[in-house]
Amino acid sequence: MKRFLFMLSGLLMVAGLSACGGGGSGGGNNNAPSSVSGVAATGAPIAYKKIYLRDSSTLFKNMSSLTSSSGEYSFSVTGMTPPFFLKTTDSNGKDLYSVGTGSGTVNVNPLTSLAVANAAGTGDPRKVFMNISSLGIPAKFTPTMVKNATDNIQNMIKPLTEGYNLTTFNPISGSFSANSIDPFDCLLDNIKVNFNTSTGSVSIDVKSGSAGTWTPNAIPPMMISAPTILPSAGTNIPISVDFIRSFPLPNIPMVVASGGKFSFIALVSKLGESLTWSVKEAGGGTIVKTSSGFGEYTAEYTAPAVTASSQYTIVATHSNGSKAETVITVTPTSTGSGTGGGTPGSGATAFIGIWNPSGGMDPASYQFTDTTVQAILPTGSAAPLNVTYSGNTATAVFTPPSVQPGMPMPPMASATWVFTIAGDGTLSITVNGMPKPGIYVKQP
What we know:
Helix content: 10-25%
Number of helices: 6
Low-confidence stretches: 1-19, 21-32, 226-240, 334-346, 401-412
CATH class of the largest domain: Mainly Beta
Number of domains: 3
Strand order of the largest sheet: 28-27-26-25-24-23-22-21-29
Shape: globular
Largest sheet: 9 strands, antiparallel
CATH superfamily of the largest domain: Carboxypeptidase-like, regulatory domain
Mean pLDDT: 74
Number of strands: 29
CATH architecture of the largest domain: Sandwich
Distance between the termini: 49 Å
Radius of gyration: 25 Å
């Protein structure tokens, strides 16, 4: 166990920070000029969690993605306005924030939350992310101001970082791996950053010794901010419904069979606001909200029964009158058995629902309706498949759409998938005659 000495507020402490050793970290940026990417971690990687990016345009753009198993993420920021603000939530439900003044590496961890708060002059980094365009936030995040904030953090925790040769490590832009071997990740394993949003101060707890004992307020409370930022009474914060797209994969064609269902997502330029969904045309089906949060609102559309292809307008309307519209095509149900899906047979009812993996390496779940099946990946993406039912089997030709950067690629360009319900009620899958690893259980 590595041991080092550090002086903290007049107290000499002999500490061996637990569960770490070896390795090295440094800065660097090998990203393409139009991307923002990094690692989200608290020591352990923040794995398979939603991460949000918002830019600094007047009605700012809101994007989301999912971190990888190692906490890595990437966004394309082509056409977007820096600085870029990021948010994710760790496994304990604690929100973490970060900021990038341009493209390149932008990590997200407890120390980057501290940098956001310090640069903005607030003890609550959440208020920065919530009110980017309305409170002059971007002006507080010039490269110089962000550097000053990270310099302040380096000075604040210098007694800790000296033991890891990390006194000049930048928590936002430095290169590291969330593997408990990397020195910076080891440091994150052994600190807790505590914000007091009432007083605008911060303290840091430190874990040390072979027993991994936590010392509360090892770095005692320190003022990091001006008074908490709050909008003045009557402030007119601009809000807009930016756009509506298919959900969960943005490039799914907006087509659904007669009587079928289709999911939409609307992105809104401010959090926590009300949004209503509607269908413009009378008799054009129904749509209901399914979830909302952090500027994303999802809804499920149920198409009407049609005898000829028809188009209907889906509308998402904010309480301030801002709205966005998109058009979905509803096609009549085919009576044949080709790729159009066919009339639901005796096996359709047995399949309808969501089948989750209960073993094997396939991370996807499969959602069946009476005419289609979607492969739902951990990223939230899905690929629509037309399906023909026959008894306890369902056959689908998989022609995947183009995918966005960072999305998992489908196994092949085109394939025939056969889904079979076994005697024990589980689902098995073959792709072009080859078994697909895993078994699946129907969700109650």
